[in-house]
Amino acid sequence: MDALEIARWQFGITTVYHFMMVPLTIGLGLVVAIIQTIWYRTGKPEYLRMTKFWGKLFLINFIMGVATGIVQEFQFGMAWSEYSRFVGDVFGAPLALEALLAFFVESTFLGLWIFGWKQLKRGVHLACLWIAVIGSVFSAYFIIVANSWMQHPVGVEMVDGRPVMTDAWAVFTNNTALVAVPHTLFGALAVAGAFLLGIAWYHLWRRRHDGIDTVGKDGRIIPGDAPHIPGRDKADYTVWMKSLRIGAVVAMISFAGTAFTGDLQGKLMFEQQPMKMAAAEAACHDGTGFSILSVGNVGSSNCEDVVAVIEVPGILSFLAKGDFTTEVKGVNSLLGEYKEKYGTHLPDNPLYGERAGQEIQYVPVMEVTYWGFRMMIGFGGIAAFAALLALWVTRKGAVPQSKWLMRLAVFGILAPFGANAAGWIFTEMGRQPFVVAPNPDMNGIDQVFMFTAAAVSPGVSAGELMTSLVVLTAIYAVLLVVEVKLLVKYIRGGVASAMPELASEKHGTDSKDQSDKNDGDAGPGKSGDDVLAFAY
What we know:
Layout: H1 3-42, H2 45-78, H3 81-115, H4 122-151, E1 156-159, E2 162-165, H5 168-172, H6 175-209, E3 214-215, E4 221-222, H7 234-272, H8 274-280, E5 290-295, E6 307-312, H9 315-321, H10 331-342, H11 366-393, H12 403-411, H13 414-429, E7 434-436, E8 450-451, H14 462-493, H15 511-517
Antiparallel strand pairs: 1-2, 3-4, 5-6, 7-8
Helix pairs in contact: 1-2, 1-4, 1-6, 1-13, 1-14, 2-7, 2-14, 3-4, 4-6, 6-7, 6-11, 6-12, 6-13, 7-8, 7-11, 8-11, 11-13
């Protein structure tokens, strides 16, 4: 393995791991803000419990996201210095806004939310959470603006071989970004929806398993109390049932949103990066049919032995052009065009080192693009179907007693995570061999592109990169164990793990009293008066 390949593995591993935190942070933050808003307006204690429980899990994930995201910034300088030099004039603005504006707003107001439960008025406290959540959305927007410029460079002119930003408005309103942002947000909400659904299902199942809740002759649930277990009262049942239903609805709406925005994103990709989309369909020859399943050597650059087993006529044309008849260029046709425009071999330039003169592989790894595209759609569809099924199964207020069905609901949390990861892998891997992709619709400045082979740091050896790869992978593995253990601990602890004051309440205390005790307008209560009880 040479330095370029190791650097790509390093960035891929750290980025995919970090991105596991991002959609849950954004999606769960939005859901928690909505739930706290409902509590603010209604005063119902179950919504306070939901806010604190899901808020605690949100905080754990947020902290891990910050810890893993810091590495991404350093990699631009350590492993990809030539890339940083090339894009620096453009990336400076969105990345500075993300760090100096969005992240600081997000972290500042999130801190006020954590410490302000008893110190701030309820309305002010709620506003802090909304500002923090909106800050996370803007943070994602600025990052996507930078990434979208790599997919579709706009608003620049070439000066001494480097792109210089001449139109900031064009960069920040890049049509690729404007479609990618809502697609990403819907994907984040899909993760949050499945997260709520799976965990709520587990707690409802456990209440039935422990004999707290029973089912009447009409099949409807009869919530009960467990005086010996803190927080396991009738209100606890309401917390989990409402969480399950909110999660299921969010998951279904999110799937519809990702499908709609994904269609718009696909049409843009057919225009901007036709090779990526042809490889995603294993469309080796010009045509209109969409391959649901192809077999053969999907990684072959000439595609001669790829056979479509299941193909739907006209669908590929609809995905690309919005009709069912326009032929879409396949890999073989596009390959000749790319070679004619950008050459057959890497330039004889010191930037490429030993890779100078190597043949350029314009066809991305089709096993990744083809199956990544289908995994993205498949996992998203599975999560949406599971949400619909959950609403139907629990229509009488009870989850089945099946342990295996409970486990399936919990593991189903991973489906939208898989869809998000597959989508980003497809987006980034499909752009190869370019780190900044040339676009044919660039108004005459199609020369704005950069080969990935020229982007890696020339002064970093393969051994140094391999060392950092091993160390970072090991550190991230430890962080993964820490996060999973923390999440499992507080998930199993239920609402009481986020509201220790429940443990000191006497059985029979009106739950409305608890709501009042935690009202921001009131002073500290006798129990849970440690301001860090919620955070820790």
